[in-house]
Structures are given as C-alpha cells and as structure tokens.
Amino acid sequence: MTSQSPRTTAAPPRRKKRRDGWVALVFLSPLLVMYAIYFAYSIFFLGETSFQKVGIAMLRPVQVGFENYRLLFTDPVFAQSIINNLVFAAISIVAALSIAFFIAVALSTGVRGRKWFYLLFLLPALMPVSLVATIFGSMLQERFGILNETLRSIGLGALAQSWLTTPALAYTAVALIFCYLIGLPIMYYTADLSALPTSALEAALLDGAGTWRIMGSIIYPMMRGTHITVILALLLGSFRALEVVLFSTGGGPGTTTEIVGTYLYGYVNSTGKTIGYASAASIVVLIIALGISLVQMYLTRTRKADL
Amino acid sequence: MTTTEILPPRESTELITQVDARGRKRRRRRILEDNPMRMVITRGPDRVAIYALLIIMGVAFAFPLYAMVAKSLQGFGIQNYTSLFTEPIGGVSILSTYVNSFIIGVFHALLVVTVSTTAGYALSKLRFRGRELSFAAIILFLAVPGTALIVPVFHITQQFDMFNTHIGVALPEAALTIPFGVLLMRNYGRNIDDALMEAATLDGAGHFRAFWHVFLPLSRPVVVNLIVLCFIWSLQDFLWPSMLFTNPNLTTAAQAVASFSNVLGRSPEDFGRYNASLVLLAIPAVLFVLFGLRFIVNGLTAGSTKD
User: Fold this and answer.
1) In this predicted complex, what is the ipTM?
2) How confident is the model over A156-197, as pLDDT tens digits?
3) What is the pTM of this model?
4) Between residues 214 and 273 of chain A, which touch chain B (CB distance below 8 Å)?
5) Nearest CB to B126; choose among A27, A211, A286
6) Residue B147: other Cβ atoms inside 10 A
C-alpha cells in the first residue's frame, strides 16, 4: 500500500507536523516549567516524604515505610474530615441547584433593581473567604453575637443558642456559610440562561404553562449541562475550602466540623515530626481530587458529544 | 482559590444602554422586550411571588453584611474607621494590605496570562501528536487543592529563597490557576477562525508573529477576564500568604482578617474597630462586583457561548 505516490504526497504535511511539534514544545515550555516544579516535583516530594518521619526543616528523615499511611487510615478524624467535606459539598450542591437556580432565573426575567440583587448575591463569593467566615463566626457568638442580640430584641430570646459550641449547630453554621457562597453557581446559570432557545419558552407559553411550570419543567431540565458543571465545581471547591471552617469554627467543637483543608493545614502548622504524616494525607487527598477531575473530564466530554 | 471556573451573567446588552446617554429609557425598554426570559413571568401573582422570594433571600444574604457594618459602628462610631487609617494595627496599615494583595495579583496575573496564552495557542492552533492527551493531562490538575501542596511548596520556596517575597506567593497561586487559564484559552482559541491564522502565515508570519499579532489581540476579552479573576483570587487567597509570609509589612487583605483579630479581636472596646477593619477589607470585593464584573461577563460570554 505504501507505494511511492502516497509517500511523496504525504511527505510535506508530515514534515510540517513535526515542525509544529517543536513549535508547540516552545509554546508549551512556560507551562512545562511551572508544572514540573509545582505539580510533578511536588507530587514526587510528597511521595518521598510520606514514607518518612521528618519535621518541616527536612533534617534527618527516618524511613518508616507505610507507617504514616497506616496511622492515617486508622485516624478517625481524617475519615471524618473527608466525610464532612463530602457532606458540605452535598449541601452546597443542593443549595446551588435550588436557590442559585431560582435566583438566576428570577433575576434574568428583568426584575427591577436586579443590579442591586446581583451585588447582594455575588458579593459574598468575591470577598475574601476568611472575611465571610469571620463575619459568620462573630455573628453567631453566644453572648454578643448579633444573631442572638436580634433574637432577644424581637422577643425571641428563647431561640438564642450557643451556635458555635453545640456540635449540631456548629455543623449547620458551617453548612450555611457554604450556602452563602453560591455566587459562582448563580453566574454559571445566568450565563447559560442567556443562551436558552426562545422557542422552548414560546411553546410552553402557548401550552399555557405558568411561571413555576416553566421554571421547573422546561428550564430546569434544559440546564443539565450547567447542573453537571455546578456540581463538579462545588465538589472540587469544597476540597479547596479551608477558610470557611478555619475562620468560623476552627474545626470545632472538638473535630466535628473538620474538613480536609483544615486537617492538612493543622498538621503542617503543628510542631513536631508530622510532615511525613501530612504528606501521606496530602497524597490521599490528591488522589481523591484527581479522581474527581477524571470524572469531570469524562462527564463534560459526553456532554459535548450530546450537543 | 476555591473556584475552578466562572461563567458570567449576560448583561452586556444592558450595559450598552447605559453607555448611551441619549434616549436611554426607550432603548432599555426595547431591550427588555427582546429579553425572552420575560416570558417566564406569566401572571401578576407570580411576579409578586418572585419579588417576595427574592426579597426574603436578599434579606438573608444581607444580614451578615448588616451585622458587620452595625458592629463596626459600636463604641466610637465613625471614628472606628478614621482611626484605622491614622494608626496601623499591630504594625500593619490597612492600605498596605490592599497594596500587597494588588502586587501579588499583578504577578499572579502576569504568570497566568503568559503561561495560559502560549499553552492555549499551542493546544488550539498547532497540530502535533498527542495534543488531546496533553490537554487532558493539563486539565487533570484543575482539582488540585492548595492545602495538599503546602509541604512541597514550603520546601520549594525555601530552595528558591523566596520567603517574604510577593512573587513567592504569586507562584503557587499561579500554578493552581494555570489549569483553569489553559482551559479557558484553549476553548476560546478553538473558536478563533483558523483562516485568520492561515492568512497571517501566507503573509509570511511565523507562529510567533501569528501568536503575537493575531491570536493575542483577538483573545483580549478573555485575557482581560482572566486578569480580573487572578486579582479576585489573589485578594481571596489566605493559604499562601499565611504559610510564606512572616513579615507583617507584607500582610495581605485576606490574611489581615486573622492578624487584626489577634490584635483587636481580644478586647471588647476594640471590637468596633475590628469590625470596621473587616468592612474596609471587603471594599475591594464591592469594587470588583461594581466594575470588574462587566469584564468577566464580556470575556466569558464571548468565549463560552459560541461553543
């Protein structure tokens, strides 16, 4: 099959292809440098230290084999922080798929003052998270927190609680902060709503569908692609979250509200030879995060094929 | 840095109306008639219900902000604010925290834009073997949580002797933003007509000139959007400054929340001042929503909806 004629015609494009390969390498080189240092070397470094007993100064490491991993998998706090992470992600996903969706649709119908509404709903997501979590923390203080003060002033003093020291309430409080930060999903939905085919809305109107019907039965299913993006972005975002918990409850009371971010942060900042242990935990967290990434890539790929 | 992707609300049409001063009202009405989402509200009562729900949620969202502002006036009233500008808190002046966040943002944006545009060009406009695979490998790191990289980044910063430097914080921030930047630039680049590139090549331009004179100018909206996002994320980032800065002069806005609380949060008479400082630290976010959102909006609608 590979006689002379195809070879001669195929030669120029192939040569061009190879040349583009070198050009591509040049264009990709800044990226490769960053990736080599901050991802490849980092992961190699974590892998190496995860088998050691060593402090942050990296002096005199002692090889301990799988000891760090064994300790990690028997630590109930680590398991709890992963579960908490997933629970908080689930709560913020539910909030996004309902509240954020409603807000985005309602605001895109051209209500009055929607610029102010946008400011109000998006602002929390753009402020430093440390700030938002701190505000919640001080708002929920038992004695001088403004929530309890407000409750007392309107005669509902009986409802005043020690929000941050009761485990169930502290857990709820952290979940609420995650819900408060849904500005991002609102942006996603708003963007996708602008590309909504008008014909579907017109058809629904002709069929006599009301507002809630149009929202629930027409627009909601049409946003499937955005739902997937929102779900995955929030799932990944929750593993990146640190400040939400650190600045509101600090993981407490006890370890009730600990998440992966505060768990790792706490171990690195604690004194003693725990760096190897933190590395092992980081490796496990990285594996989970990369796994979610793979799922995301798979799902978004099938979504593109649908369209 | 909790966000992996941001898509915008579409308000560009309305923004155009605001630029034109003459005949503004009439124009706005016509655009609202063009807005198909108006069809969602079918009956008067539904409109009332939508407003009612929006206002209820708005009040819920505003409450923490109200709490912060109300507490900030406790004690000495507006003097809480003025004193913050005249005397630094624990050796940190509030204005310098903005400056530090801004400088880190500049480095962050520079790094991300350099790496993302070059890589985006290679992955969308150059043909080479393994292009899709390398894209997938790059995107895989979208999900990496910063907390999992604390140990190696600490070590790398030590090796490069970059503790207490702005660039030392901007580098890991950029590393975590780059996968998103590449995704954005590559998706945008795929929508740029190849014919434009070919025309440039026919005119004798090499890939570097095609990149510099065709690709970059065409992708300006999405680059501006990326820059805005880099600034927002630098403003929000608490993790890297807290790990890599020990010099109080370098405190960033997100970090200041913690350091101010150490100085002011303890005594009741300073509580008002502490909250006033929180309000001031939130100001950049307000400015971002008011002025920067437009760039995110324009950049991403241009980049995403054509897909």
Assistant:
1) 0.84
2) 877 888 888 888 999 999 999 999 999 888 888 887 787 777
3) 0.84
4) 214-215, 219, 229, 233, 236-237, 239-243, 246-247, 260-261, 264-265, 268
5) A27
6) 27
